[in-house]
Structures are given as structure tokens and as C-alpha cells.
Amino acid sequence: MSEGNFQTISSPSAFARSRLYYALIGGFERTPPTFALQREHYPAYEALYITRGKGSFRYGETEYLLEPGDGVCYDMRLPHAFRADPLEPYEMRYVVFQGPDLDSRWREWFDAPCVAVRGSGEPGEPKYAELLTEVLTQMADGSFEREPSISGLLYGLLMEMLAARRSSPGERRELPQPHLEAARRFLEERYAGTDVDIRSAARRAGLSYAHFIRRFKRAYGASPKEYLTQIRLGHVKQALLHTPLSVAEAAEAAGFGSYNAFLHTFLLHEGCSPTIYRKAWRRSGEAEAAQNVTDSPPSTGIAAPHT
């Protein structure tokens, strides 16, 4: 693909808008020295990659300096602005995209509405930049037959951005220290009990609550609350596949105090109900034992939904 200025505008089909991740606008821009753009709101996401030059990107109250090899992906519904360096104006590839479940997925994958990935300094482009280029190539084709492929490329681009961000120099995980390991074991050993909470784990680590959360996330890649939820979901899934416990019993045994909260969390993380998960992954012999199990709340023990 040549790097002359171009822009491709897509009109996704109804099928793509309801089922797929779809591209709206994409292209390559070589900005002039006076380039400045401010936008208050647009109902989509944008991914961009800087190929040459310098400039700045302001998102909310945060300003990012952009250089070759840097990538940014962000929710365009918050105020943002671009400005080129007048001596070395930047060049960038970009794609604006959306998807029917992208808002909820974004919250699962990223901890902020804007993520920036610094260039590694290694030769060649990162994988997400290659995927962005392929999206632009397929957008230029203009046919509806390309939509499933573009959707897969956009999903892959987001996953590569997530992986690159977590491994970038500013986001490297620190090696767990003994006091953090003690707190992690505390969460793992007491995940199902009523006495487990994040503040108790922080005291085990000998850290303030806020400092503990920051240190734990840098060490393990998840906040203490997220880590505890992952432990509990893991035990629920084991119970669903390998025991005759009902869904409600499995949730209660794993430490979920509210059935409604459990069901919401399970749907958010797995994309399906506990019953569908059990039917899809349980071995045929074991499945017969659970054929009458549903996602209905229990009659006692865990709070039932309000009607």
C-alpha cells in the first residue's frame, strides 16, 4: 500500500452493524506543519499508528507525545485533539470502527478509554500496525464479502494492542515480592469465605489500600478484585463441569454472595449463561446428571432477583 494521503469511507451492511466489528473510515494522512484538529464527540473508536514525524494527542486532561512507532486506540466519544510538530509533522495510518458489543468488551479488556503503546525501537512494524494496514487494504476493496474478514482483523488488532500495552516498558509487571505473594495466597485460600476482602489482603501485605492495589496489579496483571473474581469463576466452572451442584449451589460455594451479581459477572466474562456453558463443555456422561439444572436463582441462601 502506497503512503500517499488517502481516505476510505465504508457503509457497512445491516448484518455487519448487528453482528460484526466494522470499519467506518480509514486511511493514511501526511499532516502539514500547521495541522491541528479538535473533536468533542464521535460514536466510535479509532486506532492509529505513527509512521513518521512527531506531534501530540490530547485526550481529556492527558497529553501524549507521539513519535514514530507509537500506537493509540481510544473511545472517540470523549473530547480529544491532535497537533503536529511544525518542524517534523507526523504521518499516520488510522481506522475508525465500531461493533455491537464493543463498548462492554472494551471495559473488559482495557482499564481506560484511551490506551497508548510506545514504539519498541525494534526493526519492523508491530503486529497491530500490520493488521491496521490489512484493514485499510480490505476496506479499499469496498465489497460486503470483506466484512467478516475485516471484523476478524479489527478484533486481532485490539488483542495485539492489549498485548503490546501490557508488555511495553511503561507497563512491565514487577516481580512479585514475598509480601504480595502472602496477600495473593490469602485471596486464593479464602476466596469462598465471608472474611475475605481486599483491605484484609492489603493488611497482609503491610501496605495501604491504594498502594496495595497498584502494586498488586503491576505484579499480577489484574487488580485484587479482578483476581478474586477470576478465582471464584474458575471454581464455579470446575463445579459446573465436574460436579452435580446446581448453578446456584456452585455460585454460593465459590463465594458469590448474590446470585444476581454472580450471573451478571458470569455473562460478562464468558459471554453465555452458566447453563449454556455447562451444556456446551460438559462430557456427555456427566451432562445427563445436570440436564434439569437451570440458571434460576435459589429459593434460599442467595438473594433472589426482585420482580
Automatic annotation (TrEMBL):
Signal peptide: none annotated. SUPFAM superfamilies: Homeodomain-like, Regulatory protein AraC. Residues 288-307 are annotated as: Disordered. Residues 181-280 form the HTH araC/xylS-type domain. The keyword Ribonucleoprotein does not apply. Keywords: Activator, Cytoplasm, DNA-binding, Transcription, Transcription regulation. PANTHER family: HTH-TYPE TRANSCRIPTIONAL ACTIVATOR RHAS, HTH-TYPE TRANSCRIPTIONAL ACTIVATOR RHAS-RELATED. This is Helix-turn-helix domain-containing protein. It comes from Cohnella cellulosilytica.
